[in-house]
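@channel sequence for tomorrow's demo:
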Amino acid sequence: MGQQTFNILIAGLGSIGRRHLRNLRLLGHKDLVLYRTGHSTLPDDDQVNMLIENDLAAALDQRPQATVIANPTALHLPVALAAARAGCHLFIEKPVSHAMEGLDQLAAIVRSQKLRVLVGFQFRFHPGLCVIKRLIDDGAIGPIVCAHSHWGEYLPDWHPGEDYQQSYSARAELGGGVLLTLCHPFDYLRWLLGEVRSVTAVTGQLSGLNLDVEDTADIVLQFESGAIGSVHLDYIQRPASHWLQITGQTGTIHWDNMDGVVRCYRVDHKEEDIIPPPADFERNTMFMTEMRHFLDCIAGRAEPAITLDDGIQALRIALAAKRSAVEERLIKVYDD
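structure tokens (generated this afternoon):
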């Protein structure tokens, strides 16, 4: 019996849209429709033998079973609402939007139509973070005391050949800035440590890159468990650095995205446990695993590992951080 394939609409042909397009092709999916407005800042070399529509209604008239929403953050929701009304299962790139308005409406449509929604927080599929999840759940380092996530990456290096100032990451009207664009830690910390109660943040425009969004942010998170988290984000650091450290009452776990290695120190062990990723792991492995999972969700073989509600909660944290920086005070995540 051959692999089940689906008619899938891809909305947006930026860097992440192209990655999903390539991966879907590698997974054997040829019935792909591309919806694009023509505003991508990247060359048009990924559109061979594709049906391309510049009108969303015309794209949805092709009756896709699922839609991959990979356009700029501030444009996610109109596409998601139209696709959901058309009965499409949804893969929504993170963050799910740039604001909370309209997300309750999307959630209501998803519930009423019994749609599957997966949010694109691909780090949940990183083997190192999956190891950390198991270690924490097994009580390997005792009750969690604190966690720190650090992510600095020089924006002009992200997509060589692209004018970084025209990218959505750099433009406020498209939902850019480090708090939204680099929001992965808000999701994986919530996944690992539980719900976030309150947020305090300081942001700045310190890169010298002439951006109209925050390019640097430091955020303190108070978890419902009582644990304290801190997150540093910037568009500046060279070389790039992305790592996570979690301290428990009886040990410490450290993960570095550079090599994918997890190091776990437990006070009752004499040596640090060093857990590397699988030998064949590379960055795109996360995206391939994520897309396979989405296809399994469409086929009814799995439930989404990262739901629309998960995406909404991560957005709440990011927006609370924005508000905290502006108002210079602690913000309770569920004030609204």
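heads up for whoever presents: Residues 155 and 235 are 5 Å apart (CA to CA).
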